[in-house]
Every structure is written in C-alpha cells, then in structure tokens.
Amino acid sequence: QVQLVESGGGLVQAGGSLRLLCAASGRTFSRYAMGWFRQAPGKAREFVAGICWSGGSTGYADSVKARFTISRNNAKNTVYLQMNSLKPEDTAVYYCAAAEGGIVTRRQFDYDSWGQGTQVTVSS
Prior knowledge:
Layout: E1 4-7, E2 10-13, E3 18-24, E4 33-39, E5 46-51, E6 58-60, E7 68-73, E8 78-83, E9 92-99, E10 113-114, E11 118-123
Parallel strand pairs: 2-11
Antiparallel strand pairs: 1-3, 3-8, 4-5, 4-9, 5-6, 7-8, 9-10, 9-11
C-alpha cells in the first residue's frame, strides 16, 4: 500500500478553478492506477476521475468531463486534479485513491489505499 495525502481544496466561486494535489509515499507509486473520488453531504462517495500507471489512459465521470483533468508525475509521486468551471454541485470532500492493478478503474473496491480527503466548496 501507499500513503496518500491530499491538498489544494478550499472555497471558490462558481466558474472558478482549483487544483488538487495528492502526494504518495513509497517507491512503487508508478505501479498504481490513481483515482479521485468525492462525497457530498448526504450522498454516497462517487468516482470523479482515474488515470493508469503510466498516465496514458484516463477516465472521467460524465458530470466532470471537459471540466476536470487528471494527471500524474511519477518522478514526484504525485497526482493532480485540475478543476475548471466549478459548479456548486461540485462541493464535496475529494479523496485520492490508489489501485494496485495499474489500470484505470471506476470501482471503489479496486482501490487499496485512500487519503483523508480535502474539502472543496463552490459558492453560487
């Protein structure tokens, strides 16, 4: 497993942007697929975006496609989520997760390690 720490959350107005960062510990980071999930108050946690071990393949939830971009830097053990054109409905706690299989997956049970989460609040 890897240890994951998210940062970059905060309060932003609708239409604004934020960039989330997930820092991973461990020398095997490049073997993991990485994902971002979110959980809004009173709702189940949902998949947002995922990226394969090499960064060559990505996947997005329909609700964020064309607004959010996931990327990674294996040399820095870091994965990013660039969020543009934010909407109030994007308000949630955002979690970073790592899947040992290395392939993009939307299924939460494929992920072995989870961060503590970072709050994103979008005001209208």
